[in-house]
Design brief:
With 351 residues, this protein is α/β, with parallel strands linked by helices. Bound molecules: nicotinamide-adenine-dinucleotide.
Amino acid sequence: MAKYRIAVAGAGVIGREHCKLIAAHPDVALAGIADPDPAAPAYAASLGTPHFPDLETMLDATGPDGAIVALPTGLHKSAGLACIERGIPSLMEKPVAATLADAFELARASKAAGIPVLVGHHRRHSPDIGLARETVASGRLGRIVTVSGMWWVDKPESYFDVAWRRQEGGGTLLINLIHDIDCMRFILGEISRVSAFTSNAVRGLAVEDTASVSFEFESGVLGGFTISDAVASPYSWERASGQALYFPHQPENYLFIGGRDGALEVPTMEHWHHGPGGGDWQNDLVRETLPLDGSRTYENQLAHFLKVIDGAEPPVIDAEDGARTLAVLLAVKTAAKEGRVVDVAEMLEGL
Ligand SMILES: NC(=O)c1ccc[n+]([C@@H]2O[C@H](COP(=O)([O-])OP(=O)(O)OC[C@H]3O[C@@H](n4cnc5c(N)ncnc54)[C@H](O)[C@@H]3O)[C@@H](O)[C@H]2O)c1
């Protein structure tokens, strides 16, 4: 008999991936699937698990040890509250909620009840992102000066056949850049101010397909990031790391961290620095590859969720932390829309 029973709400793209991860884990069984889609009962039957029309009915009928919420983002808050009311820890897909008010309401409810919400920013469980954070914290790169990154992919036209992906909130900022922002916060600390340009010129949809963003961190680090879902390239964490669920692996880099004493490329983990005698721009640099532990991001996330369920670990990213990542993303959107530098604190006023 499995040690943990986990229920999944939303059997769409990512919900089905969670079901596969559960099926592959020796200590976890699927307690049930909730999804009103007409195809969902047959899918649940194919996995030998009960089907329910909604999350609340599923939680009450199955009493799982944990719940994975893979619903459209607008439903995250109510689903999270339903789990908290029943004392059930949740793994909440990202963004944690559709608005900051919803995100902080969820965070407060989680804290008040002592029922954890782990947000599905899966890259926090990736060996390359973890090692980048450790390397920065260790001081090996010296004082961090700058960061530069890119997320360039070519989404197929059919991706946009789904209506919500063509509407406000369905663009590459809220869906994709939010992961990069979360990684940069995790590795380099809080972001204080942003400016940004966005464009929809390639696809001509109501939502942006491309953006360039400048960041100022509280530490004084300055950074830049460009993102586009309309570029054929290997420069995205998913493709470069080979850690994502449904992308081919083509080893490359997507994030470059620069310090006074060295630079780090992620995820190849090439660490560039001067030799023991030191040096400057006219001296050779040594290239050293930092070893990764070989673990897999989504498996690590599920393993961590089990520890959160046990109370053995606090969430690596809880609802409040997820809300702070969302606040930076909303600052980027505001900066692009209003053509001004936006202080992230402005997004958090009154919350
Ligand atoms: N971490 C990741 O790698 C990752 C990847 C993709 C999506 N996401 C996030 O996961 C969430 C879901 O995205 P998706 O791409 O899987 O969406 P999707 O549209 O493919 O799936 C959502 C599913 O929820 C179901 N649903 C709708 N209303 C419901 C309700 N009231 N009760 C139960 N089920 C309901 C739909 O029928 C659908 O099957 C979003 O928040 C998205 O941002 C995360």
